[in-house]
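Can't attach files on this board, so I'm pasting raw text. These are the components:
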Amino acid sequence: MSQVTVSGSRGLLQAEPLIFEMAGSSRTGVDLPEPKGTANRLGGLKRKAALDLPGLTEPEAMRHYVRLSQRNYAIDLGLFPLGSCTMKHNPRLNEKAARMEGLGDIHPLQPTSTVQGALALMEELSHWLMELTGMPAVALSPKAGAHGELCGMLAIRAALIARGEGETRKRVLAPISSHGTNPATAAACGFTVDEIDAMPDGRVDLNSLKAKLGPDVAGLMLTNPNTCGLFERDVKEIADLVHAAGGYFYCDGANYNAIVGRVRPGDLGVDAMHINLHKTFSTPHGGGGPGAGPVVFSEALAPFAPLPRIVERDGVLAFEEHEFGQATGRLCAFQGQMGMYIRALAYMMSHGSDGLRQVAEDAVLNANYLLARLKPYMSAPFGDGPCMHEALFDDSFLEGTGVETSDIAKALIDEGYHPMTMYFPLVVHGAMLIEPTETESKAELDRFANALIAIAERAKAGDAAAFKAAPRLAPSRRLDDTRAARQPKLRWKPDTIDPARVAAE
Amino acid sequence: MRYLPLTPDDRRAMLGVIGAKSIDDLYIDVPKAAQRAGLVDLPRAQGEAEVERAMRGYAKRNLSPANAPFFIGAGAYRHHIPASVDHLIQRSEFLTAYTPYQPEIAQGTLQSIFEFQTQVAILTGMEVANASMYDGSTACAEAALMAARVTKRNKVILSGGLHPHYAETTKTMAGANGVVLVDSPPAIDGEAEVLKLLDGDTAAVIVQSPNVFGTITELSKIAEAVHAQGALLIAVFTEAISLGLIEPPGAMGADIVVGEGQSIGVALSFGGPYVGLFATREKFMRQMPGRLAGETVDADGKRGFVLTLSTREQHIRRAKATSNICTNSGLCAQAFTMHMTLLGRKGLERLALLNHERACDLADALGAISGVEVLTPRFFNEFAVRTPKKADAVVEALAKRGVLGGVAYSRLKAGAMDDVLLVCATETNTDEDIAAFAVALKEVCS
Amino acid sequence: MSVKYTKEHEWVRVEGDVATCGISVYAAEQLGDIVYVELPAAGKAVKMNGEMAVVESAKAASDVFAPISGTVVAVNDTLSGDPALVNAGPEGEGWMVKLKLADAGELAGLMDEAAYKEFVGSL
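---
Top answer:
Structure tokens for the assembled complex are below.
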């Protein structure tokens, strides 16, 4: 147990209140010139409501956020094996490039004659994405993976409407193992979602697919490599079946890292696929975003890519921002996540065609190495064959121990690791999905495997109570989700002010 | 390759442990025909210096606002960002963390989000705010969808002062999900015109203040009329700093307030990444899109924060989720909350006042030019002017003179008001900038 | 009359032409700590096996299906402030909806307590 201290701090880990509890609104960390006091033109709409925003001087603000930061796990601290999330190293060159004068500070509505470099950079990124995927068109503007899914499914919707089948093809098929964003996106586009079954080997059941295909099917949403970390062997046949039934094949590209530079989705019959630049192309996850989700399209769907488009006229690049044939409308103000395009292109150029292929191969090698090392101690439901970039385990090795998947996760925290993805995909019981990525050395993988093996052995030896108490060494012990959800407290409120502090002010 | 730690010896040893002869054995499930024997047709790997040089090459072909008198706003704004903010968001623990699904090792992000949610609620005058959306425009679309869920109606009316990109984004995103969007004609000072289209089938009206022409509008009367029909008032802003000086929508009866947070802490970056702000009333919190951080305690009874009300979200509710959003704008929200903490009330109020005074100075300078007329009756830091020539030609001519002098409204909405130029001044503009702009505009307009 | 059960673990007790419904003890145990119950509006017509309410734990949301067809005449409003009642007494204080019966004949298709017990034992 942690030692009780007067300050509430524990060595390097400083106790830190909320900004609302430490500062009044009389201080500021910015020095600004004195206003001139000229007459205002606000038409009498000056703020009357209270604006009780606390302010901190720069040294106070630095400490506040540095202290908070030390409660976070991060890739730069250790292996981050979240399956499906591709937590790889984020090169700092990319950060530097994104902040360059002339890139980080240009306005989205500058006359295009003054931003030819920016448009050229977007064109170059598009070229790389199209070459790598073997697809003839790309839309850069989607702001994250789920937004890219929306972009792709809206293009499918538009293509169906153009064919006169907008009202008749309303059903979208997706495997039970799909990411939650897939059914959520299909529903957001006005489709209904119909789940298809998996086979015992973790792949799409072709018979289930065939049975569900029909004249009311708009398309299939499938992740490949799939969410079990397996390549869909029959992907070509799946694509052909969907096309023969008059539907489109949307591929969720969340797991593209396993095949980049080696396999092109364009050769697999894909009609649309989003690419998470924050996964495969290393833009930082930033504690939950921002991401970027460009979508590559087949010839069939290319006309329905959204606005804006980049066009070239007499050697000058420009945006088409209003009308462009059958384009679907705008998905966001302006032209998307330029800051992420810069980082992703810097990453691609650094690796090159040779390095990107090595990325995929090392990611797959690392995952299979962990699978091989862990398999004897845990249970790998599809461990008879190789996996792709992530290795899936279930909780059958924990049967009868009283220890659950979530307990393994919390025990890993005490060992200094971020846990793997838990309870996803839903097709195996108590799932643990481990994705090491290619930026881990063999030594780091061994260190992680040794820790996880020790945890598995301890669980089997029957130490359930200790597991339930984990984590004991993290900045916080287990947090009460139920309490948070029963009486939601989503913001600080003045009535929670400590009376003693008020009296002292 | 500098980012790949495995050596050829490592790879051989690891393949041995796996029991595979070569890497090809690990790709046996991929159809042979789909595997490329050689490399894709792209350049080979390059060193850091080479890539940096290439990036500078792109940068050099752009005119940086640092090197020109700069007066563009219309949804994205040039403001000074404190050096400490950019330093802090590059700390590994914020930059290279994932979404805080493991709260015991993510309290840094979670407490920051909780503080962010509180700051946004205070700024907008609302009760609760979420952990961010992609940007203001997608937040606007999500607000329309939420209003349809709350009211179980599907008609949403858009004002003629709503940023045309926001209107288009809302039509694309909410329109696909069955919401019927009804437009009002562009109007510089006509937010209340939405009431002409209001009826008992209306889920919400969307108004903007300051609107795309810069006009500030009193919303209380609109709110009353909207509520009388059982509809919701969605209030949009694109310039977050305006809320340091003008009455917030929450104090004027808005039910959902959405806007762009880029002005506070986030670089212009040619349009993204930005940060969408989303605030509403507590009674609607279970209908909100996106992530929410909430307060709780840990096993020792110590305060901590977790992501909560997650059953609204796609990873749990799937097809019935309130939104498909997963990744949001986490790090931009971090930058926002850090900058806001440095500003505090005192800094924000002064910053807002400086912006307003600069804009007043600019209006005086431009309004004095023969043939140029300031059209916006009440404004914060941006306003519309009528130009004697087509505004897009004026913008180009100004650019040739090295002045980035606003945006033609017709660039945002094709064919509309083609003699209207939208201009903006912030604390970053000097007296010299304003004088240079006025001189150039006078030349261009004569 | 006695309580009847569905295979989806809802229960129903009919008094006169009003049926009180909720989720079974077994269902409440499986769901864990209930944090929120979304109840239908009074006057809403529901069909047997159709969606009637939603119960949420911190990490899951589950539909509660109508054990029988009818029109909602009352809901248990105390659950909005105290969802834990569903855990404390799922087949008592934690009731969810009262329906005006549409077709009493539907009851014949449901399990009685003994049959439900056997059904749960087989899971």
